[in-house]
Amino acid sequence: MVTTPRHSVRENLLLALDTLRTHKFRAFLTILGVLIGTATVIGVASIFKGLDQQMVEVAEGFGTRTLFIYKFEPGIKFHLSREERLRKPLTYEQAMAIKEDCPTVESVALEIFTWGPAVVAKYKGQEMLDTNFLGATPEDFQNINADLKDGRLYTNVDDLHRTDVAVVGADVVQRLFEGEDPIGKEIQVDGHSFQVIGTLGKRKAFLGDNGNDRVVYIPYFTYKKLYPKAKENFIAALAFPGKTDQAKDEVAGLLRRLRNDKPSDPNSFGIATAESIVSQFRDIMGMIVLVTVVISSIGLLVGGIGVMNIMLVSVTERTREIGVRKAIGARRSDITWQFLLEAMTLTGSGGVLGILAGVTLSFLIRTFVPSLPSTVPAWAVVMGFVASVSIGLFFGIWPAVKASRLDPIVALHYE
For the segment 206-233, what is each residue's pLDDT rounded down to a tens digit? Predict the structure, then answer.
């Protein structure tokens, strides 16, 4: 009877599965490193995928056409250089110059704030200790895609007359006015009284926290009236559709002239967009994932070495069986593929268990830590399985070749 390649593969696969069933505990210990390595890769990839989706939603929620301009690059900062720390703040006049002299910019908004401890907001007996308190021009709500939920937004008239009014975020409403309509009520913020005229809808949050939901906005010049020494200005410039890159170049050129940046010097300010912030985040997370994958590869390597050792033991234990198979016509390639498939089945089983463990871990994270998003990407599942099978293929070559080279006569006499 002629054995077809398909029949041979199926027969060898059944032999491999039978060997796994015969030595369950030994097989489990052998694939433990592969299981842990695969599960780690799946878990980290799922967290990265979830965080990436969340970051994209948060960044794009502020507008894909908005330029965020500050004295240093807006976004994720781990440390500031001495040059960045010494930079002068942006000014109101510079913001107005962007509005007047940059034809690709549709609208310019300005926020002003002071660095320092968190501000306390009070209403009756309720207190909020982590209030994000700032002044902003009326255009700010449009430029950062703020969603008015109730009441109204303040206007240029309110700003010019320095009225004591406030628009508050969703968390402020929830924590200070639970069960009560905040519109028309007086709140105390940092010792100053403001009438709430509007509330904002809840925004997408990153890792469960969003300072923009804890915000109390007051008119820009009202803030300047209360805090005349405040100098920290943040500009949000809205570009015309399809003109974001051109607007960025125009704003950069204008600010370099206004801030007297020398041709050889870097920008004394930073300009970011939703796209650049997401790109920066992906670069950072990519490095973290790479390091994690490298560490996980140690587990796969240990698992591979374990597989090779077990397969060498298996070759020794089954020397007589190999001799019988060769005596009845098995070729060297048949013996090689028998042991290779056994090694690949061993590590592939570890990969499947690792994938199941990683998916379970992702589900548990999503269930018990809702603020930490976790979504298993298809590429991680495929990569985990392929890597585990490849480990078996690579580390199974030497035992398989050793088995195929056994002399059938010597093998038949082996005890």
Answer: 766 666 788 999 999 999 999 999 999 9
**168 and 199 Cβ atoms separated by less than 8 Å:** yes
User: Of how many residues is the chain composed?
Assistant: 415
If you ran DSSP here, which 8-state letter would residue 353 be given? H
Which letter, b or e, does each residue of 246-259 get, where b requires 16 or more Cβ atoms within 10 Å of its Cβ?
ebbebbbebbbebb
Token representation of residue 271: 């300009």
In which element (H, E) is residue 43 found? helix 24-61
Q: Helix, strand or coil for residue 329?
A: coil
Tokens of 108: 């310019």
Closest CA to 183 of 145, 139, 151: 151
Three-class SS of residue 132? strand
The whole-angstrom separation of Cα 116 and Cα 232 is 12
Q: How far apart are CA 130 and CA 261, in angstroms?
A: 37
Q: Are 193 and 218 in contact (CB under 8 A)?
A: no
Determine the 3-state secondary structure of 215 from DSSP.
strand
Fold observed for domain 65-112+230-272? Alpha-Beta Plaits (3.30.70)
Q: Where are the domains of the chain?
A: 5-57+279-412, 65-112+230-272, 115-226
CB 171 within 8 A of CB 201: no
Lowest mean pLDDT among 21-25, 196-200, 257-261: 21-25
Read off the tokens for 272.
Answer: 């970011």
Q: Which residue type does 349 have? A: S
Quote the CA–CA distance of 106 and 407 in Å, as a whole number: 83
- The token pair that represents 57 in the structure block: 């939603």
Taking only the tens place, the pLDDT of each residue in 136-177 is 999 999 998 888 999 999 999 999 999 999 999 999 999 998
In sequence order, the 6+-apart residues with CB closer than 8 A to the CB of 121 are: 127, 128, 131, 133, 172, 176, 187, 188, 189, 190, 216
CA atoms of 344 and 16, how far apart (whole Å): 9
